[in-house]
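Subject: Interface between my chains keeps coming out wrong

I've been trying for a while to get a sensible model of this assembly. When I model each chain on its own everything looks fine, but I need the whole thing in one frame so I can look at the contacts. Pasting all components below, labels as-is. Any help appreciated, I'm running out of ideas.
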Amino acid sequence: MTLQIEKSPIVGSLREPITPEGRDLLDIVTTHLPAIGAVAAENDRQGTFPAAVFEGLRKDGVMGGTVPTEFGGFGVGCMHDVALVLMKVAEADASTALALHMQLSRGLTLAYEWRRGSSVARSLAERVLRKMGTEGAVVCTGVKDAPKGGIVTTLLPAEGGGWTLSGRKTLVSLAPIATDFAIYARAHVPDGPPRYALAVLPRQSPGLTVLDNWDGLGMRASGTVDIVFDNCPIAPEDVLLREVAGERNIAILAGQTVSSIAMLGIYTGVAQAARDLAVGQLKRRGKVTSGAVRTLVAEMDARLFTLRSSVAGALAVADALAYDEVTDPAERGLQMMTPFQCAKLMVNRLAPAIVSDCLTVVGGASYSGSNPLSRLYRDVRAGGFMQPYTYPDAVDYLSGQVFGPLDEGQQG
Amino acid sequence: MTLQIEKSPIVGSLREPITPEGRDLLDIVTTHLPAIGAVAAENDRQGTFPAAVFEGLRKDGVMGGTVPTEFGGFGVGCMHDVALVLMKVAEADASTALALHMQLSRGLTLAYEWRRGSSVARSLAERVLRKMGTEGAVVCTGVKDAPKGGIVTTLLPAEGGGWTLSGRKTLVSLAPIATDFAIYARAHVPDGPPRYALAVLPRQSPGLTVLDNWDGLGMRASGTVDIVFDNCPIAPEDVLLREVAGERNIAILAGQTVSSIAMLGIYTGVAQAARDLAVGQLKRRGKVTSGAVRTLVAEMDARLFTLRSSVAGALAVADALAYDEVTDPAERGLQMMTPFQCAKLMVNRLAPAIVSDCLTVVGGASYSGSNPLSRLYRDVRAGGFMQPYTYPDAVDYLSGQVFGPLDEGQQG
Amino acid sequence: MTLQIEKSPIVGSLREPITPEGRDLLDIVTTHLPAIGAVAAENDRQGTFPAAVFEGLRKDGVMGGTVPTEFGGFGVGCMHDVALVLMKVAEADASTALALHMQLSRGLTLAYEWRRGSSVARSLAERVLRKMGTEGAVVCTGVKDAPKGGIVTTLLPAEGGGWTLSGRKTLVSLAPIATDFAIYARAHVPDGPPRYALAVLPRQSPGLTVLDNWDGLGMRASGTVDIVFDNCPIAPEDVLLREVAGERNIAILAGQTVSSIAMLGIYTGVAQAARDLAVGQLKRRGKVTSGAVRTLVAEMDARLFTLRSSVAGALAVADALAYDEVTDPAERGLQMMTPFQCAKLMVNRLAPAIVSDCLTVVGGASYSGSNPLSRLYRDVRAGGFMQPYTYPDAVDYLSGQVFGPLDEGQQG
Amino acid sequence: MTLQIEKSPIVGSLREPITPEGRDLLDIVTTHLPAIGAVAAENDRQGTFPAAVFEGLRKDGVMGGTVPTEFGGFGVGCMHDVALVLMKVAEADASTALALHMQLSRGLTLAYEWRRGSSVARSLAERVLRKMGTEGAVVCTGVKDAPKGGIVTTLLPAEGGGWTLSGRKTLVSLAPIATDFAIYARAHVPDGPPRYALAVLPRQSPGLTVLDNWDGLGMRASGTVDIVFDNCPIAPEDVLLREVAGERNIAILAGQTVSSIAMLGIYTGVAQAARDLAVGQLKRRGKVTSGAVRTLVAEMDARLFTLRSSVAGALAVADALAYDEVTDPAERGLQMMTPFQCAKLMVNRLAPAIVSDCLTVVGGASYSGSNPLSRLYRDVRAGGFMQPYTYPDAVDYLSGQVFGPLDEGQQG
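Reply #2:
Try treating it as a single job with all components included. I did that and got this:
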């Protein structure tokens, strides 16, 4: 009950770009994949950021992939296509994909602000996008406060107008080559309650220090470091004030989805790479007759298909709703976030399982540091920690969609 | 970390028909869902076929849902839409959906033959389709020989031309109201090796007996019985000769996919129904605070999203390739079958897991024969036995795609 | 890399009785297994209690298996041995094992009361045990109030002393042949807060009705029905007053473990029976070469080994601590309950998984109502609903052991 | 439904030594655990063997832990106790446990030879054991030929009697401090077919080179390197000739079990350490209210219990049968190996799952190279590659026990 074929086509969704811009970007990125893959092992070992790879990507305009054409970019606005690009990059090196995601995601969200935001937001977004599209700006986003010290990154009003930024952000990928930073902070507004804010500042800002402190289990070449801010001055027009701190705002779910959903491509790429490596290593050894190996490989392909279908399904919803002007923003946010979280939960389960089974079918050789599967085993585990959401938060979010939230005292 | 919303929208693919014909069919079927659901429990208990339900469906033309409009049918050719209709029916009663699948699947494959087959095939297909579209014919397919007796169902040349059919088919759903049967048999061709063949014959044929022997663990109202053929005479034009028996023919994979892939909607519907029942029963009890229950429900929704995405992904490939005239038929068959099998393997894992978790969160009440979850627990397990393929055969198929087949002596 | 052997020994723990009394009981029970198995299918189909089987067991003294020899019983006090006996019975018929568990468990807990309880408890226990050991009493325990009506079963002080019992208990297995009932109720004590209580009353009590309302998904021959109490009079000495209602009392965990842990043998037996049936059916078909089938069977045996080891491990702790006079009772209760719950959680996961895989390897034949695997698929699912605890409660208990309990407002 | 307790006792088997010798050895090893744990992180990072730790263990006699007292050792012959010691060491550092296992396992198998072997075997075993017990010999076993070059390690008859050894062994843990090597080789016997053989030779042997080439994904401090043999001379009495090469010999299964089963303790220890680290980190953060975290921790404890029970169950069988003189050696081998493989398969599934869930509940902090959980995530994955058997071979072995082996052409 088996049929012979010559080739084993990759099945499942997330195969072809949907937009012409996406096709163009993918074509150019494809020419860089050999170079990306060639340095992956050594950069992983040393924990070194692949600066030369990114210089090449920048020269070819890839760093402006999601910057609108109006500002000199490729103009890819389709999240599916961004995820597909990241998937292909991740098949060569997951760290590079994670770092690239930082820049492409920033372009997506700024373009989203530029199209849908307030006039202040549009103005700031336009300035930054133009810098990304024409001056080679590399913009890193800092979301998470560093646990060290436990301080909330804060904007204080500066004398004479403007602000000063102080604090420490962690897990800022791509930072080694960043020219600018977009930092989430709590702003102490003079006459009113503290508000969430986004501040953009150049790397040369006085008081800004980029650390070299990344030491991850995996994703070791992603340049994911801490940034320290010590009274960095920021002009008024470079700060976007948002909702009052502490208030729930489900409208932001749409923006969070736009910012983060393409990362699902990264972990899909890791799983696909592991599968292809394992199958390749097995085939080189000759006829595969072990019933257990054949069973695991069949399971692997079925799960990979499922993973790709789920990711594509969530991206399709996100792309359909991101610029939908009809739906209520809050409802739209939920409709985008829920499929994203469903797909993310399954990716974080299936991708590591696929990689682990790849090690099993290849055997002890895969446990060597020189076998790329051992890198993928470490890289793939990062997916569970990406925001939004970690597993416990995803459970709260998804069950909250069904039953309503637990009261404060009842939840994590 | 939880957000409140008013409603809990069903997320994931397989939500809306793609074609206008599909929309029309779904709209009509929707009006029958209350009646279908109303008799589900009692028919399950008694193992009774819902003849009145099907009479209603027939009157409204649903039994010609996949018959081309040229022959008086609804003309739904989109497998996605057929799967969606079956999913909605299965949410009301899985047995009804399984029986209905028999007829809708037959329409799909006959229309496929009518469009792509040999002239003999086209002629036979046209006759049967016309009968289905205008005379209310209900056509059941018999694929599997009954293990009782271990006899291969066989066509022997009859004196004076034509054939006689003898043997016994099992697992023929919908048979209680069948007007005609399409039976796979081995034909002893006078001058040549035995060939596979399809024979169509009316229920009134001399020597044909419809048994009443269904006693399944689940799907108890699907009228899935054995049919006995004792020298039934068949006219020459009612037999389609196919490939030489014993030869592998991967071109038939496309037809098998067309014939069977919509069944994935059935098990998706069972899982969705179980989830909705469980959530409904939980909500009626008041605030759900158990961490384990909330975790299981979040997992359930993520898995349901994945299941729907996978099924939709496989259907999209099948719909895209079914009438593709460019691709080599064999290659096309593989490209359709592989996603189908990947999705089926995951459906057969995820759907029973979802239903079982539904029982867990509802608790002991779900173990009562009067709780519909106990029926779904039995019904959903049928998915693993549907052809093509069972789990062992799917593993052989999928691993054969990767590594090539095992030699005869090496496989199951 | 495979070695040939003649036989396939059952591996894992839970193979041999530990005590001579356990050996004697097992030997006698073994002689009844063919009779038990012979009527299993038909009783399952009809939902009929195997009264003749139990008459046979009673004649041979099995119903007094756990009654101390002082009172005419076999004197089996080792929970491991009781679980082993139930496992062997469940291999023949799970319903019979579940019903027998009711009686053997009652003997164990009464013997436990007789050895460790208050003087009132000892006196009552002695009377009931003597009746079980010498007069053939069959004592059913009613724990769970019937959801119908939502009434708490209650003891009210009767005029002239004693009590009257009113309410309705559900899920009382073995009830069709019960001679006496041990009922948990809330007692309205004249001068004080309500207290938990255990009341023992004969079947002939005025106002007591044994319903015939069992209709389970599985365990259909276990005679698991509701009992209605309408002002049943009970003598003062037949009521044991316990802790104040609503108070937590971890000392009772030891008694709950003694009462319920042997049930783990039942689901172990179901899984073992399914495995043996599946392997037997496969072997009868000839050489098994399917890689998927061989993989599933290897997994099955590994999981069965694990299941048996876990159950044996939990029983070993329970047997060691049940009569330990040194350890603080509360601490002892936790030390017994925690392994029991760990093993139960894994049994409720692994046993259904094993049975489901048995259906998979056997194929469609197993889905027929006449194949015993279809009964085991239904029976095995009962395990998740047995007290203590269901899955959500087990998660609360086990996580509470690690982190302390959630506050009232935080938990289920 | 939660109960408060003060402490969270470790539940499950594998808690206390069974023999007095085991107790003594554990007590001494316990004093070294802080030192072992203190250097674990740095040695992992650098891939450095903890030579000072082993010097300390040697001084206290731990390296003679399984050497019979007759020869100056601790005389621990109970595999359960050896596994328990390795588990405790692995809780501090898995690499150290893996290296220590090499020596303790060698003592066990030599003592087994000394008690059960041929006179030649007894004599050689006695000499090596005496050297281990009184002279501080550290004996490493080389089983697996290095894939580099693909050469079978071979013994050729030397001129003037004796042998010369040539080849290359890989995955020889503990080698940095080995004084002697026990090498499996194929011996070209002058007048007869090639035979399997074991050769013992000192580190100073001419032609012997210990490489420094370990670079594992995990177990990085275990000193697991390649050893090259270039015409090393070996005296006749230092070679044990065994069965004819290529012949199946199930009698050796008993010896393989004795040699390897204690390693299950290592992976149990890794899982236990991960669980304790995760729970500790969670508790330090304050009240744990997340339903998902509490659910995962409950699952973790249940699986850890199961894992410990399974390992203890397999060890109990091995200890009972290792010196059983009654059972047929081949049958005994199977009876020891089957539970070992069942437990190993489950350990290799449950231990990595537990560690991965520990990362999930701790969150992103666990992904840092400085968090010990990231080391455990890598270390625990080694279990799947330990011999006997890897997963595909275990499936062949276990399914072969049930169905008989596949023919040569049918298997892996």
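Reply #3:
Confirming on my end. The first helix of chain D runs from residue 20 to 38.
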